[in-house]
Each structure stands twice: as structure tokens, then as C-alpha cells.
């Protein structure tokens, strides 16, 4: 069944007039009236709907029933030093698939500012996250912050376990992971060229533990994937400790 994320205010309408992006997708798919769809509000709300009209101008659906689902991924934040070019897009796409629930892009000393308007870039990033979440069937959209200065992002981090991926003066990751799952974790990853000594010192003062994977130095866009996979396997829904997927909690029927 096709799934689409739509803004929550639209789902409060009756009947529901679909946004232009979803309308275009339905036109491409050539779905006939009567087709059932799942509309998600990005906050865990799931709505089973029936397509009642789809023409060149617009598409409309009627709601059949609604319920809520929880994201099964373990709470994980990625604080990512902005990399070159469009690598951040890959990080957002694959990070969403791997269960990262909060993306915080950082302006680091060795980050190279990207040309273009930030608002437009954020809109594109949000679309990438939404499409990745739709494809991998996550019921909740990961949170995306505006790019922040390094020190400000550190101050705002509230994760229980804070790890800085840094090849200098670091402990093996396995040595710092607690046996019991912490309430949440944050991964701090630098841009190409890594962190400066001053940034590493700031991170330590903010409660981040410098860790490494092993003898190989990973690229900026690879390090977060590797760490997220390991943590979701150990504490989250990629490993043996993961529980069953949440059972939909029905809210209403027609």
C-alpha cells in the first residue's frame, strides 16, 4: 500500500485535499479512485484513506480509520559537521534508514560553507528525509535542525550518552558502551579534516567521550552510518534485543 507524509493540518480537513507533491505522485502512479492509501502526519499518526478523486487539478481522499504507531528505533541524534558538496544529502537519507531520529548539522572550523540560500537547502533536506522515511516505513519523521555553530549545538545536546568520533586520543567504542541501554545517545562527527584540538576540548567539556572504531579512519559521511548501525544493533531495533514492532493503537473507525 502506498504511504505518504502530509502536514498534520491537512489531515484535520474533511474531506482531505492532498498537497501538490502527493497529488503529482498519484498522477504518475495512475492510481484509480477507490485505491486505499496510508497518510502519515510524521508524528506517529497513521490514517487509512480511500482515493475519491484524482484529476489534473487536485486529488482528494476520505478517511476510513486512524491509529498511532511508535518509532521502534532507539533515540539517536547525529551532530554532523557539514561536509563538502551534497554529501549531507546522503547522510540524511541513509541516516534516516538506519534509525537516526534527530539530525543536527554543524558549522565546524574545517567545514566549507555551501553556496546558496539556507532556507532552500533546508527544504530540500527535509524532502530527502521524508522520502527516505516513507521508503523505509518509519512512522515518525526524524527531526532536522538548522545548521548551528559548533559550540551552540554542543550546549543544546541533552542525550544521556554522548560520543565523539575522533581518531586522536580516543578509546575503542566497545570500551565505553554501557551494558544497559541508555535513554538516548548523540554521535558527534566532524567534517572532512576532522575536528580541531580546540573543538575536541570543547566537546569533552560538554560531556562527549572521544571514541574510535579501529585502525581505519572512516570518511565523514561513513562514520555516522557505522556508529548508528552498531548502536541500533546493540540497543535498538536492529539487534536481538529489539522488541516486536508496535501494534497499531486504533483511534477511530468510520
Radius of gyration: 20 Å
Might you state the CATH topology name of the largest domain?
Alpha/beta knot
How does the major sheet shape up? Answer: 8 strands, parallel
Overall tally of structural domains: 2
CATH-level-2 architecture of the largest domain: 3-Layer(aba) Sandwich
What is the count of β-strands?
14
| Residues in helices, as a percent range | 25-40%
What structural keywords apply?
single chain; alpha/beta; Alpha/beta knot; Ribosomal Protein L25, Chain P; 6-stranded mixed sheet; elongated; 26% strand; 2 domains
Describe the protein.
It is a single chain. By secondary structure, the chain is of the alpha/beta class. It has helices at residues 8-11, 20-29, 87-97, 118-135, 150-156, 173-176, 197-205, 220-235, and strands spanning 3-5, 16-17, 36-40, 45-54, 59-68, 76-81, 102-107, 143-144, 148-149, 161-165, 171-172, 185-189, 209-212, 249-252. The protein is built from eight helices and 14 strands. The longest helix has 18 residues, at 118-135. The two termini are 20 Å apart.
Structure summary:
The protein is α/β, with parallel strands linked by helices and 254 residues long. The protein contains eight helices and 14 strands.
Secondary structure layout plus pairing:
Elements: E1 3-5, H1 8-11, E2 16-17, H2 20-29, E3 36-40, E4 45-54, E5 59-68, E6 76-81, H3 87-97, E7 102-107, H4 118-135, E8 143-144, E9 148-149, H5 150-156, E10 161-165, E11 171-172, H6 173-176, E12 185-189, H7 197-205, E13 209-212, H8 220-235, E14 249-252
Parallel strand pairs: 1-3, 6-7, 6-12, 7-8, 7-9, 10-12, 10-13, 11-13
Antiparallel strand pairs: 2-5, 3-4, 4-5, 5-14
Amino acid at each position: 500500500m502506498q504511504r505518504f507524509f502530509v502536514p498534520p493540518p491537512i489531515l484535520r480537513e474533511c474531506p482531505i485535499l492532498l498537497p501538490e507533491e502527493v497529488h503529482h505522485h498519484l498522477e504518475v502512479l495512475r492510481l484509480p479512485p477507490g485505491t486505499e492509501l496510508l497518510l502519515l502526519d510524521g508524528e506517529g499518526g497513521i490514517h487509512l484513506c480511500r482515493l475519491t478523486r484524482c484529476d489534473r487539478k487536485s486529488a482528494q481522499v476520505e478517511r476510513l480509520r486512524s491509529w498511532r504507531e511508535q518509532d521502534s528505533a532507539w533515540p539517536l541524534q547525529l551532530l554532523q559537521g557539514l561536509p563538502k558538496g551534497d554529501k549531507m544529502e546522503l547522510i540524511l537519507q541513509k541516516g534516516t534508514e538506519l534509525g537516526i531520529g534527530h539530525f543536527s548539522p554543524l558549522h565546524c572550523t574545517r567545514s566549507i560553507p555551501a553556496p546558496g540560500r539556507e532556507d532552500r537547502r533546508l527544504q530540500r533536506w527535509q524532502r530527502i528525509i521524508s522520502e527516505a522515511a516513507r521508503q523505509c516505513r518509519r512512522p515518525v519523521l526524524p527531526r532536522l535542525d538548522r545548521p548551528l555553530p559548533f559550540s551552540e549545538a554542543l550546549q543544546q545536546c541533552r542525550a544521556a550518552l554522548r560520543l565523539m568520533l575522533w581518531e586522536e586520543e580516543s578509546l575503542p567504542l566497545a570500551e565505553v558502551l554501557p551494558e544497559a541501554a541508555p535513554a538516548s545517545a548523540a554521535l558527534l562527527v566532524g567534517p572532512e579534516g576532522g575536528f580541531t584540538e580546540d573543538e575536541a576540548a570543547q566537546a569533552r567539556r560538554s560531556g562527549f567521550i572521544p571514541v574510535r572504531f579501529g585502525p581505519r579512519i572512516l570518511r565523514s559521511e561513513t562514520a555516522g552510518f557505522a556508529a548508528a548501525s552498531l548502536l541500533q544493533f546493540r540497543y535498538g531495533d536492529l539487534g536481538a534485543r529489539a522488541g516486536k514492532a508496535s501494534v497499531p493503537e486504533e483511534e477511530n473507525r468510520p
